Amino acid sequence: MKLIGITATLLASANAFSPALNSRSTSTVVLEMARKPFISGNWKLNPQSKEEAITLSKDIAASITDKTPESDIALFVPYVFIESAMDSVDGKINVGAEVRSFSSTNRQLDMDTSARSSLTEKILFLFADRVSALKSLVPLQEPCLPPCSSPSA
Amino acid sequence: MLKSIGVKWALAGHSERRVLFGETDEYINGQCLKLMELDMNVMLCIGESLAEYEQDLAGAVCAVQLKKGLAGISKEDMNRVAIAYEPVWAIGTGKVATPEVAQKVHSTCRGILADMYGKETADSVRILYGGSVTPDSIDELMAQEDIDGVLVGGASLDAGKFGRIINFETK
Predict the structure, then answer these.
(1) pLDDT for A76-95, tens place per residue?
(2) Which CATH number fits the domain that encloses residue B32?
(3) Which domain holds residue B147?
(4) What DSSP letter does each residue of chain B carry, written as one string?
(5) Fewer CB within 10 Å, N or C, chain B?
């Protein structure tokens, strides 16, 4: 558990009722806040069957005991197994998903695979985009698309 | 769709999607903003390639990916965001960034978040490490000051290994 000293200002709720309140005059308290550990797994496109997904989820959930460090625990699973996994972990584990696609036309996050189209063009764009962005941050001698031939150490 | 079945966390920006599906930082930013709008939590994956690592560009790449990926996300919404630093060269390769190397990048990332959102917010955001995490490396990773958790690939498909990772030991 990671403890960090955080100065919290008690003004959010107070200001809602008295906008004229000067935040500088508000008292501050120092709280010991912790970043709760977060242990997560990414199954990507595994396992191969629903039965395996259920067994795996159950076995993982069963490994959580009273002695387990207090953490957020999450599993990112393939879409088709989300509900099976949720039903198998007895509420002990967050079941999440990897965002597969985002369609700007209908503003939906869904399983649409339109991102596959013009793959080569997009990869080139990705690299070009990154290089141009990097150049604004660090002085690159030559634009160097990965993989570079001989990185200067 | 995801929200309707009770999913709270979504993963965005994984390197394999960035490379194989050509997802750009702008596209990933759109996903993050949509997830915020839906009141969901997002784990944003960032990380540099081997060439970028060898050119000492890890910090610069993370700065670009954080600033572009989180663009438009308010300080208040940052409590629904976690960052996963996954050096691309350590994903599925068996190569692990040493805990010290990972700690250094995590610390840099926290500094970038502090520039964007202030120190208090940066100190509250969890930064996870991903890339060939195993039962053998978990304890030392979790002992690092700025490593707040892990995003486990292969070992999360083995209940024994992932069970050990969940039960990490702190000294």
Answers:
(1) 999 999 999 999 998 999 99
(2) 3.20.20.70
(3) 7-166
(4) -TGGGT--EEEE--HHHHHHS---HHHHHHHHHHHHHTT-EEEEEE---HHHHHTT-HHHHHHHHHHHHTTT--TGGGGGEEEEE--GGGSSSS----HHHHHHHHHHHHHHHHHHH-HHHHHHS-EEEESS--HHHHHHHHTSTT--EEEESGGGGSHHHHHHHHT----
(5) C
